Amino acid sequence: MSLLHQYGWYPHFEQHFISYQAQGLSAGRVTAIQGFKHTLISSAGPVEAMLSGALLNSRESWELPKAGDWVAFKGYEDQGIILEVLPRLNELSRKQPGKSHEKQVIAANIDAALILQGLDRDFNLMRLQRYLQQVSQCNIQPIVILNKKDLVDDPLSYEQQVQALGYQCPVILSSALNPSGLKEWAAQYLLPGRTYALLGSSGVGKSTLLNALLGAPLQQEGAVSTANSKGKHTTTSRQLAALPNGSMIIDSPGMREFGLTLEEDAVVVSHHPQIMALAAQCRFGDCTHQHEPGCAVVTAVKNGDLPELVYRSYLKLLREQYHYQANATEKKRVEKQFGRISKQVNAHRKNRKY
Prior knowledge:
Layout: H1 3-6, H2 11-22, E1 26-34, E2 37-42, E3 45-51, H3 53-58, E4 70-75, E5 80-85, E6 91-95, E7 103-108, E8 112-118, H4 125-137, E9 141-147, H5 155-163, E10 171-173, H6 179-189, E11 195-199, H7 206-214, E12 239-242, E13 248-251, H8 273-279, H9 296-303, H10 308-351
Parallel strand pairs: 3-5, 8-9, 8-11, 9-10, 11-13
Antiparallel strand pairs: 1-2, 1-4, 2-3, 4-5, 6-7, 12-13
């Protein structure tokens, strides 16, 4: 098996690379980004590369190469120049942290996302649902890992709470300090040639878990505050690491915010299993499950069949969807108007005589 195929060189990328290969370019996968320096894995091994000026100035931030992307580059003696990003199979994204409504792509071409929560003070069912919601709408298979199971008396009760959310995804009880249990679930879920994104807040044990899977310390393990059980950032940039069994994991810094990036035609309910199951019984097909008569969701909340906490989470995500989509629509309107003005200016220049 070639080095590219070991790193996930699927037929999809091979097909889109044909025209670039005819131009004498090489293919590589982004394994790490440090400032302007991109580390690629190519058929000849690791390559340090920079973005071409044309690529950097013609794309939105989220369209530029991210960890996991496949790119076409021109190789030189000391470094490569990245000229194009091959079409992605998918992209793991979130709303840019803060007040911005821009999309931030965390990683690309992911087979599954490992969503890690610690069973100490980090466990938060609604935060977990937010991760599940966003990962699902990015067309990525979620796998929930409940870490630090040795710190609680009844870890199975936490597993049952997650399964009750209805996402039909694997839920793993784990302890990064238990090598035998770790190897058992890793052999089942981390498959050779597949790429996994590791997600979670600071202090949940991501670096400890990754180091245990690698069998060597790639990341320094961060301390957790004894006052609030909140961790400090150990990982400072995203990077793709190959595991001994041939699978790959993209690690990322701990995230305090994980906002939705639902596109215009997407709806929260389509990735919210408990709401979706009840929505089929609503009187109106376009029910928003807030104030409409005959709403099965509202009725279920009143009867106690749907937890109030889950319903409040749905409403919060619904508001986020509205604000994100409204700002995205406004941005498109402004860009369209700017494009129209640019055409008028160019036409005026051509018609003007000097």
